[in-house]
């Protein structure tokens, strides 16, 4: 058992099941006070009970992360109970998978609200809290840990809404890292592969528990140590990164960057663009394929 997060307070959204529960349990085991946020009161209470049984400190919260006002109540609950907040783990998510031509406005809005707006609402309150602390002369060690996905990095057939939200979260993470570093806050993202409520049905065969007792690569607990490390004070030098983690594999995603450039020195006309673009495409790195393509 590590004590990397001793004395720190972390809020974990979607912590009633799956990855969020694994994160909450691991953070508590590392010494953190944990606010377990989940819209399901019974699963949130179960996670809290598991933490307390193991000797940790936690409280349940069921406020809606898609409401800016209600997200503020999550932060306030942490402050009321533990006097400070050091870590926000934005984990909660849903899926409404459809091929793009069949996607409804409701499917789009629900996924964008929970993933992208949900990441904004809670982080917004935390960022303002940390900014106020920093401006008052306090030493801040704030951590925002966002959740993206391979779908956000590469796209995923049948998940245009989810892919757009997760891609937006990556861009949000970059801006948070650039803007909040002056206040002592880091922002990083995860793209985990694990068995969760959103994946265990669609990928049931691929993600099933090994019957031979071998290493369970898809167990959500495999991603939890990275969250503990990122939540700790020792991770202060790492920000603006997206970590891909699967089983025992860890890598840092290499995102969009400026490619080769053609410069005519004056305006490019439409009739000549075909030749220029063909040359640039030939010289560019071949992009990784969209999941499911």
Structure description:
The chain is α/β, with parallel strands linked by helices and 293 residues long. The chain has helices at residues 18-29, 41-53, 68-82, 105-135, 150-154, 160-180, 224-231, 270-283, and strands spanning 9-13, 33-37, 57-61, 87-89, 142-147, 185-193, 242-246, 249-252. It has one domain (9-252): NAD(P)-binding Rossmann-like Domain (Rossmann fold), CATH 3.40.50. The chain has eight helices and eight strands. It has an eight-stranded mixed sheet with strand order 3-2-1-4-5-6-7-8, sandwiched between helices. The N and C termini lie far apart (42 Å). The model has no long low-confidence stretch (mean pLDDT 93).
Summarize the structure.
The protein is of the alpha/beta class. It has helices at 18-29, 41-53, 68-82, 105-135, 150-154, 160-180, 224-231, 270-283, and strands spanning 9-13, 33-37, 57-61, 87-89, 142-147, 185-193, 242-246, 249-252. The chain is globular.
What characteristics describe this protein?
8 helices, 293 residues, alpha/beta, 8 strands
What is the CATH class? Alpha Beta
Q: How many domains?
A: 1
Report on the biggest sheet. Answer: 8 strands, mixed
Q: How much strand content do the residues show?
A: 5-15%
Question: Quaternary status of these chains?
Answer: single chain
Low-confidence stretches: none
- Mean pLDDT over the residues: 93
Distance between the termini: 42 Å
User: How much helicity do the residues have?
Assistant: 40-55%
Strand order in the sheet with the most strands: 3-2-1-4-5-6-7-8
Secondary-structure element series: EHEHEHEHEHHEHEEH
CATH level 4 superfamily? NAD(P)-binding Rossmann-like Domain
Total strands: the figure is: 8
- Overall structural class, as computed from helix and strand content, comes to alpha/beta
């Amino acid at each position: 058992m590590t004590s990397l997060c001793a004395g720190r307070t972390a809020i974990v959204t979607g912590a009633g099941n799956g990855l969020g529960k694994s994160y909450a349990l691991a953070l508590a085991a590392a010494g953190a006070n944990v606010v377990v946020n989940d819209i399901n009161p019974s699963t949130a209470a179960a996670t809290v009970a598991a933490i307390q049984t193991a000797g940790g400190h936690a409280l349940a919260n069921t406020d809606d992360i898609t409401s800016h006002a209600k997200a503020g109540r999550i932060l306030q609950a942490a402050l009321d109970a533990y006097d400070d907040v050091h870590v926000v783990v934005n984990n909660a998510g849903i899926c409404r998978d459809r091929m793009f031509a069949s996607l409804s406005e409701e499917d789009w809005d629900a996924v964008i609200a929970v993933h992208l707006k949900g990441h904004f609402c809670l982080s917004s309150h935390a960022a303002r809290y940390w900014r106020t602390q920093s401006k008052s002369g306090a030493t801040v060690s704030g951590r925002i840990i966002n959740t993206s996905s391979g779908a956000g990095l590469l796209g995923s057939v049948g998940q245009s809404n989810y892919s757009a939200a997760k891609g937006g979260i990556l861009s949000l993470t970059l801006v948070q890292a650039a803007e909040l570093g002056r206040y002592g806050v880091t922002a990083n993202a995860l793209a985990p592969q694990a068995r969760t409520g959103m994946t265990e049905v669609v990928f049931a065969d691929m993600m099933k528990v090994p019957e031979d007792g071998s290493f369970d690569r898809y167990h959500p607990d495999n991603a939890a140590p990275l969250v503990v490390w990122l939540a700790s004070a020792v991770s202060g030098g790492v920000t603006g990164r997206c970590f891909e983690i699967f089983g025992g594999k860890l890598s840092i995603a290499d995102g969009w960057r400026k490619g080769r450039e053609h410069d005519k020195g004056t305006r490019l006309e439409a009739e000549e663009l075909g030749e220029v673009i063909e040359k640039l495409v030939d010289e560019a790195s071949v992009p990784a394929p969209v999941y499911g393509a």
